[in-house]
Amino acid sequence: MSIELIDIIGWVATFFVIVSFLIDKILWLRTVNLIGASLWLAYGIIDLSYSIIFLNLVVVSIQIYKIILILGRK
Q1: Terminal CA-to-CA distance of the chain, rounded, Å?
Q2: Measured on CA atoms in the order 7, 9, 10, 12, is the torsion positive or negative?
Q3: Which of the 8 DSSP states describes residue 25?
């Protein structure tokens, strides 16, 4: 049984999203979650799963917006 690229992307995305819930510093939390959501977005695009694409496009957009706000305050 071989692991396909889409499965690897899905598992790595899952790892990043789970790890993001363990982070206390908000900038790092948003950055790690952004990576996970970006990978899930790639997964959705490869799999043509419109619900995954929509959800993660929204999450990626929110995380980028919030990161910009955080960096703007520093």
Answers
A1: 49
A2: positive
A3: S
Cα–Cα distances (Å) from 40 to 4, 21, 30, 32, 69, in that order, read: 15, 16, 15, 12, 23
Token pair, residue 42, equals 């790639």
- What pTM was estimated for this model as a whole? 0.90
Contact 17, 36 (CB under 8 A): yes
Give the pLDDT confidence of 42-54 residue by residue, as tens digits: 999 999 999 999 9
CA-closest candidate to residue 19, choices 6, 32, 3, 1: 32
Count of residues making up the chain:
74
